[in-house]
Design a protein that fits this description.
Number of helices: 17
Distance between the termini: 81 Å
Number of strands: 50
Structural class: alpha+beta
CATH architecture of the largest domain: Alpha-Beta Barrel
Largest sheet: 14 strands, antiparallel
Strand content: 35-45%
Amino acid sequence: MKFQRRLTALLVVLAGWIAGVSGVWAQMVPTGGVSLVSVADLAVQGSFWAGSTTGGAVAARTIVPTVGTSFAQAARIEVLRPTGQFWASAVSSPSNRALADGDVVLVHLFLRAIQTTDETGAVFCQVYAEGPAPEYRKSLSQQITAGPEWREYFLPFTVSGAYASGQFVFNLGFGGGGRPQVLEIGGVEMMGYGKSRTLAEMPRTAFNYDGRAANAAWRVAAAERIERLRKAAYDVRVVNSAGLPVSGARVRMRLERHAFHFGTAFQASRIVNQSTSDNQTYRRKLLELFSAGSTENDLKWPAWDGDWGTGFTRSQTLAALDSLSRQGLHLRGHVLVWPSERNLPNAIKALLPTRDASIPALVRTHIDDILTATRALVGEWDVLNEPFDNHDLMDLFGQSIMTDWFRRAHQQHPSAKLYINDYGILSGGGLNVAHQDHYEATIRFLLNDGAPLHGVGFQGHFEASPTGIPKVWSVLERYADAFPGLHFKITEFDVDADDEELQADYTRDFLTILFSHPSVVGFQMWGFWEGAHWRPRAAMYRRDWTEKPNGKAYRELVQGTWRTDETRIAEPDGRAGGRGFLGTYAIEVVAGGKTVSVTRVLTAEGLQAEVVIDVPVDPAPRIVQQPLGRTVAPGETVVLRVAVAGDPAPVVTWYRSGVSLQRTGQELMLSSGSTSIEGIYTADISNRHGSVTTRSVQVAVRQPGRPGGKLVNLSSRARVQPGEKLMIAGFVLAGPGRKPVLIRGIGPRLGDFGVAGVLADPWLRVDRAGQSTPIAETDTWAPELAARFAGVGAFALGGDTRSAALVLELEAGAYTAQLGGNAGGTGVALVEVYDASTGQPLELRNLSTRAEAGAGDDMLIAGLVITGDAPLPVLLRGVGPGLSAFGITGALVDPILRVYEPIPGGDSRLVATNDDWNLAADSGAVRSAAAAVGAFALNDFGRDASLLLHLEPGAYTVHLSGSSGSGLALLEVYSLPLP
């Protein structure tokens, strides 16, 4: 036993060592480093700044003993009056040696929570390392959090810049947030490695953010909001020069520019100076990736006035703006007034010490000057930037001076959208309540003071532990509730982190939650290339222009998931419809060897466009939409409708039982106050080129004791594949007692009917719903069943012994028939169900088939028969995207339903069609019918198809195909109660 325990202990040690090598288990401080501070533990022995507010100190430090840790003491920090600025209270220590640019440094420490009022139960502090005043250039700035247990952190970074001994300072900041907290921090060491180790060799604490999980709850609601808010319906009608609909035309809808502003900050010099390959690539990528932008620094007041040297000139700035404006970019200006001494031009700085009374007029003159120069190019402006800690002008001349700036800007550029902009609202965990409160109060003051404020800008500078997605949403909601009439924009986004996977995931998720918020109208990166970025690690492209994971995440969303580029085939009435993302579209129509392109804008109200293409269309009268019969309740009004085309416009004349009603027009309204409206109706469609007659439709009035129509029989044809792509036919038998049922799974015999690629060797399995054991299964059929086939009117199988058939005694209930191929075979197959006792069709409440569906021979086809003496209300559904709610992957992206009926001569006639159910005029009735029969709800903005029809007694086939590609689909037919 002792040996076994020793062996177990050894295995545990070995497992820990192996895992540690791979970075999974506990990490260690690498050898070869030197301490960069003169104190053993920065938290305990570093210089403590308590900070101050009007109520007293920001924080207090007490040194306390620890138990069970590698360090004997810790600093207990009581954060009493947080200001929202993490540097408002801090522990600091300068570097005890010189540091070179690119030196590798590791910060190692432990943190735990003692007391907190935050809903997460965690405490937090900011670890930051920076150069001297006035720039305070930060090489590290990282928020860390912990719960009640000690949490160990490894924070490696490289030094930005070169510093003499004592110039570079390590800090722990405690003033952030807006709620008091008590934390303990200890074991803090700062180790320098120079160039002896790389950043990749350093241990690193993996950071995360709330809402990152693939199944996070926020994702479903965000996707629904995006579908509802960012897309709308389009309806394109293709006609020729005579106004006749062009059936079968290919209509491509391609989004050229989003209505939502996806932008970036840019450097004017790189747009104007195209002499280098980097600048050429910079400009090309900007135009490829973004639809909006703003200068990074060129429109700031000191740059505009020439304070920053020859690298910033007005002519260069205006040339860049003009160039990008000509390419269609929406341009925003940053910034009119940044009201602190350090951000004002030299001419104003010189006047501040004396509180010169001319300053307000000089600010107005600057606003006039820059807006006059850029009015034709820039459509919106940050009028006021970062008022939380940039308020020198307000301190000198009062709060209403801010309102003056907005009024002056509006006076000079009445069409421009005017914004306020500030940082720290969404970043920092969304915990800076003091900053958030100040921003809300400033916005409210401006509005109450009469400022023409149109939008709120939220900077978005994040680090390695970015704000959780649910928190981002709640902060946005706070301001949306407070200011429902204002637009929001994220104006300066980046994620400064070494973890490129987290950087990419956060870019994707942050974009997604923003795109789903109704108040947000735009998003702007604060740069995109490592060679021209204030935080190079945050860039989407490396210096050699290779794409980083965050660049891929951005591109796949904005140019993939959220970009409409689809082709539809015009229906007989010349219409092609769908839903697309809002914005400017290139609509390309191809018909008769000709192509026509037009540009149109899809707004939230939708798009209806008519495109004329000069192709010949037979002027003879034709029916583009057949009428449908109805069974109505006594007293109900019924309207028969037909849609027609021809040149000249055809005359429509209605008949009942062959007798003219002396009624014309494409609609016939009938009132069922008596049974006199019952009968068979047709319409003659005629012009000087000839005439055609519609299908015969029946109108019946529901009477007590009248049996009405019934849905009977079942057959489904589809391509069968292994695994999840088996064909599964579901059916429900109605009526009392047990019935012998003939079920067939047919493959080879279909080849005799001209079907290509048939399933060579089917197997058939029948199950009762809710039972795990199959009722029966087979991969052949007995010879004595041949007589049964003939008895029910089914075609003979002859020598096809590889098809499968069963006769089973079944009682009323729900069943499934699964059809697959032996040895994983694939091919087209047919499932049929018959009443084997009398030869009479079974009565069905509904039928459904799930299988692979595509185009041509790969479409999913269902056959159904309606018996009785009156039209039957039927709900048909072709579900593809809706299957994702059940965890099914690889679903058909865009199902299309078409219903056909046979006509003499062996041909068939299109009765009705639907592409997207929610675009139909009767979508409300379709939704109600689905609920009435217990069908699962379809997404209100999904691309599933559905039809609500009254079908006269007879045989019909339903085709389910895809507009492009193939995938798993579900074809459902429901019998509805008669009125």
